[in-house]
Amino acid sequence: MGQIKIDAHVHIGKSEKMEKYFSFEQYYKVMRLHEINNAVVIPNVSSEVKEFQANTYFMNDFNELPEVIKASLFPFLLMSPSLLCTRQADYTEGIRGLKIHPSITRTAINDKKWEDIFKIASYRELPILVHCGRDPLSHISYLIDASENNPGNIFIGAHLGGNASELINEALILVEKANLDNLYLDTSAVKLPSLIDRAIKMIGAEKIIFGSDEPYNDLRVSLYIAELLLTKTEEGKELIMGLNMLRLLGEVT
Fold it and tell me: Which of 28, 60, 188, 206 is most buried when burial is the number of CB atoms within 10 A of its CB?
């Protein structure tokens, strides 16, 4: 199990936000090059394409992939509070989790508008990946509140709960204090090894998940930072690089 590597935060498809983008097949080649066993893949966020439509394109393309590629990918759907996206989360076969981007949907994660989505995710045992960043609606405090009030759900705060260094430091203090069993943080887009090291010391390796945030960050940078830090303990490396995510997905116990 120590050799498993999972990139738990990858965007697939075009977006007006970024010229660089990946198809499923293109990212699979990147995974093989860097010996990544699995990846959590998410439709790319866009202000021009609504979540329901983005998910439809995404899953249509996913279902046409060769089995060897499909077997290596864990597809997450983009969510909004709309009825259409709720139905999509309820009935779409093959999805392994959900992604919520509060600054795109303009709805904080603790808003009651998400209640139906949370019920579906709990029933289907789907982890919920939540963007955290500079926008006030994406503040970690909302995610902590949602986690406290929805103990039947598993939440993952993206970008170590803040994305920017000062917000990450604040997030780690708040997450450590809350000490919630159902709240995890991923390392996507984090470029300072010291921040991940602080996260390990404050909330423990068992609560941290490796991710790149491709194409908005470079997988090679994320892997290099991880290697700088995780040579200290083989157990911590195993947890962060793959085992934590596999457990949340029910792949291992």
Answer: 188
Terminal CA-CA length for the chain? 12
Q: Are 172 and 198 in contact (CB under 8 A)?
A: yes
The whole domain housing 154 covers 6-248
- Residue 1 confidence (pLDDT): 43
Are 209 and 187 in contact, with CB atoms under 8 Å apart?
yes
Q: What is the CATH number of the domain that holds 39?
A: 3.20.20.140
- 17-26, 43-52, 128-137: least confidently modelled range: 43-52
Q: Output the pLDDT for position 64.
A: 97
The answer to whether residue 201 is domain-embedded is yes
Cα–Cα distance measured from residue 36 to residue 220, given in angstroms and rounded to the nearest whole number: 11
Interatomic CA distance for residues 187 and 195, integer angstroms = 9
Domain count, the chain: 1
> Does pTM top 0.85 for this prediction?
yes
Q: Is residue 83 part of a domain?
A: yes
